[in-house]
Structure formats: C-alpha cells, structure tokens
Amino acid sequence: MWSILANPHRFMAFSKLAAPIAALIGLALFGYSLWQGLYVVPTDEVQGGDIFRAMFVHVPSAWLCMGLYVGLAVSSFVWFIWRHELADVAARAIAPIGAGYTGLCLATGAIWGKPTWGTWWLWDDARMMSVLVLLFLFLGYMALRSAMETRQKAARAGAILAMVGIINVPIIRFSVDMWSSIHQGPSVIRADGPAMAWVYLQPLLIGFAGQLLFVSALVLILMRAEIYNQQADAAMARRLSEA
Amino acid sequence: MFEFDKNAPYLLTIVSLGLVVPTILAIYAVIRAKLSKAKLERLKQGEDEA
Description:
- The structure holds two protein chains of two kinds.
- By secondary structure, chain A is mainly α.
- Chain A contains eight helices and no strands.
- Chain A has helices at 2-5, 8-40, 55-82, 85-117, 126-147, 151-165, 168-178, 198-242.
- In chain A, helix 5 (126-147) packs antiparallel against helix 6 (151-165).
- Chain B is built from one helix and no strands.
- Chain B is rod-shaped.
- Chains A and B meet through helix 2, helix 3, helix 4 and helix 8 of A and helix 1 of B.
C-alpha cells in the first residue's frame, strides 16, 4: 500500500477522499468519548472527583503528541535514507500538528494539576519537563527548517534534529519510573495489563482512536498543501527559466 | 443539565481547550491547503495564457 501511495498523484487522489472521511469518523468517535467521559461514566472519588474526567481530553493528547513525534522521526528517517520526497512532505505536515497537541497536553495537564496536586507546574518534575522538551523539539524543527535557504538543506537539517530528538519519547514514557515525578505512573500500557476499569478504558480508547483519525486527516490536508506548494514552486521555476 | 463538583471550572476549561485547539489546527490546515491550491492554479493559469 505504501509503495502505491508513494506516487504523489495517487497520494492526492487517495487523500482527497480519505481526509474528510477520517475527519468525520474521528469527530464522531471523539464526540462519543467526550459524552461518555463527561456525563455517563461514574465519578471516580479516588482520582479527585469529577476532575478525573479531564482524562478524556488530556490522555489522548499526551499519547498523540508522542505518536506524532515518532511519525515525524520515522518520516525523517525514510527521507534521510531513501530521499523519498513524500516522507519529507509528511514530516513537514506533522510538525505543526504535533506542536499543537503537545501544547494542548501541557496546558490541560497544568490545569488538571492545580486542583489535584495544588500546583500548575513543577520545574523539577521529569514528566512535565520532558513533555516541554518535546514541544521545543517540534517548534525547533519548524524554526530550523524555515531558517534554511533551500528545501534540501531544510529537509536534511530537520531530519537530523527529528531523528536525534526521538530519544525524548522513551524518556517521557519512562520518566515517572526513572525519576521523581508528581505525575501518576502508567495506568493503561503496563506489563501486567491496564489498571483502569473497562468502564473508563473503553471511552478513553475510543476517544484516542477518534483523535488519531482526526489528526491523520489534518496531516493529509497539510501534506496536500505542501504538494501544491512544491508544484507551484516548480511552475514558478519553469516560468523564470523561460523568461 | 449535568452538574459537576467544585472543580467544574478546571474541568470545563480543559474540555474547552480540547475542542478549541483541534478546531484551530483544522482551520489552519484547511486555510493552508486552500491558499496553496489557489497559488498553484494562479500560476498554471498564467502559464496557459502565456
């Protein structure tokens, strides 16, 4: 499938259909998850009462920002090794969406932290700081690319940064185990199975699937924009060479 | 409709952010795609006229 979509013309035809379908299904699933999370599932007094319902926004955004960074690093790796242009297009498209979702994760985590831990932010907390580093990696990737003179230089510099930065993803994941953190330990992806009751886990996973589809749609739309831009640049170059 | 406990303002702010941020990202993506497509079509139109 990937080799078929690697052709930009086929990709444009596929994404034209796939993006709106993924966005609509994603929104429906996310809406269902929010409705379940806010109004249907019982209050968890152990987790501080109704504030635990923030989980249905915060946790999918946390998983997504890490997943988007892995997508950015893998796309960069594919471009770096095989010089496949569509991989670079994907990397460029993922970065702003990843930055947005990392910002959402940090903001919702800080707001959740105030009533739960009595503080918005802790500068010596391993989980918070490693997610902040992830935000800087996304922003740095975009800034670095835009500072370069040519598309090839931008792709190369961006790819190196993205590949080196992947080390931060396992640091985020294991930060609560390796260092001191006020953040709770993992409760879903654990060696001995999820610690969360199914009544909460089911809408959480559905919400994550919905947001994943929605984010995929946004990445496809931004990839289309990038391909249009490249075609416009090629048309401009043709015009200049003819003049 | 439904009532939450004393932490309702925090919860509703988080939910609002969870709706606003993806909406902003979607608007950004759609506008970028539309502008890029319009730029390409303008250039192609210029090529055809030339």
